Every structure is written in C-alpha cells, then in structure tokens.
Amino acid sequence: MQKQQLLYKGKAKSVYETDDQDFLILHFRDDTSAFNGERVEQLARKGQVNNRFNAFIMQKLADAGIETHFEKQLSEDEVLVKRLDMIPVECVVRNFAAGSIVRRLGLEEGQVLNPPTYELFYKDDALGDPLINESLSLSLGWATEAQLEQMKALTFKVNEVLSELFAAGDMLLVDFKLEFGVFHDRVVLGDEFSPDGCRIWDKTTKKKLDKDRFRQSLGDVIEAYEEVATRIGVPLD
C-alpha cells in the first residue's frame, strides 16, 4: 500500500490517499486543539499514544462484532483505514453529566444519567457542531432512517463494550462521540477512539484522564492518556 498525496488535514490527524481507492492512511499528529481550534499546542508523544490506543480499542470492538474503518497499524503514528462516505452526524452517549450538557441544562457535573443519554450533532466546524435531532437529519438528507437506527444501535453497543473495559481498569467512561460512514453499502464506525474524543475519570477520585486536562489547563495531558492506556492493557512500548 503506497502513501500518496495529502487529502485532508484536520485538527489532530492528516488523511492521505493511497494507491487503492478503498483505503486511506491516517497520520496521528502531536497537535492538540480545543475550543474549535482557538487553542492549539504540540504535545510530545500524543500522536503515538493515540494511535496505539485507538488500534487497541478498534480490535476490542472488532472482537465484539462491531465493524470499524480500522484495518491495521502501519507505524507508531499511522494507520490504514477503509475509505468511507462519511455521514455528517455525530453520535454522543453520556453516562454521566459533563461538558456541554452541564452548561445547557444546569446539571451537576458527574450526575449519573440512567439510562445513558443519546444526542446527535451536525458535523460542521464553522457552525460549532450544533445539536440536532433525527428529524432534521432526515429532512436535510444527512442520513436515512435505516442509517440513523444502525448508528444508534452501534453507538450503544460500543458504550456497553467500552464501559466494561474501562470499569475493569477502575475508571468511568463518562461520555464519548462517534462518527460513522458508509463502506460498500454498510454503515461502519469511521472514527478514532482515544482520550481526545471521550471523557474518562478515575472511578474513586474522579480525576480527569482525558482531553479536559488540556481544555481546563490541568497539566500532565499525555501522562493521563498513558495512565488510561496502561490500566486497560494498551501496549505502549
């Protein structure tokens, strides 16, 4: 598989074409951003840690019967993925109240949400990824009814699998976001899973072990990512 020209550069990853139209190469960079790109820094080892973390999680999901875009890890900071026709709707599960839902509804951070909540957001950086619903997704042609049903079912399945995985490491999976795409008419998970895109707390102390350490200037961001990885058995060496 030959890496070719740059296709897209996101906030933390670069996407490259390959000589096979069905596959792309993702490069996990050390860039870290918050507040829709208003704050950007380079954090040493981040690309490597997230790439290995993501590869580990994708294998766990595959073992649970969840198809993802992940094919194989190519290097310390690159991975081969399926090329998907992305659905511009982001799925968010919240097991505990944190982040925007706390601000929107005046909830106490850490409040248990039982059953977990499920929200949809429109993927558009210029608009700040606004909160939407299934009706809007259908009316504006962002997804079909069948796709929305599959995305919801897969998101809750991911939540079940990963909540158990993090619980085994004495951690709480507070919330996370997922994106999906279509590969040969199949709805497939088309997102990374790392501490960049979820919230993870220590079960006892509620210490934040995710990107909120960067957003809230708590320090030791990559050290926290590595702690999470170690607790769930991600090989970092």
Automatic annotation (TrEMBL):
Keyword terms, alphabetized: ATP-binding, Ligase, Nucleotide-binding, Purine biosynthesis
EC category name: ligase
Protein EC: 6.3.2.6
InterPro entries membership: SAICAR_synt/ADE2_N, SAICAR_synt_PurC, SAICAR_synth, SAICAR_synthetase, SAICAR_synthetase_CS
Catalytic activity: 5-amino-1-(5-phospho-D-ribosyl)imidazole-4-carboxylate + L-aspartate + ATP = (2S)-2-[5-amino-1-(5-phospho-beta-D-ribosyl)imidazole-4-carboxamido]succinate + ADP + phosphate + 2 H(+)
Keyword ATP-binding: yes
Domain SAICAR synthetase/ADE2 N-terminal positions: 6-231
Gene3D superfamilies: ATP-grasp fold, B domain, Phosphorylase Kinase, domain 1
Highest taxon of the lineage: Bacteria
Pathway note: Purine metabolism; IMP biosynthesis via de novo pathway; 5-amino-1-(5-phospho-D-ribosyl)imidazole-4-carboxamide from 5-amino-1-(5-phospho-D-ribosyl)imidazole-4-carboxylate: step 1/2
CDD domains (UniProt xref): SAICAR_synt_PurC
Keyword ATP-binding belongs to the record: yes
Cross-referenced NCBIfam families: purC
Family per similarity comment: Belongs to the SAICAR synthetase family.
Protein name (record): Phosphoribosylaminoimidazole-succinocarboxamide synthase
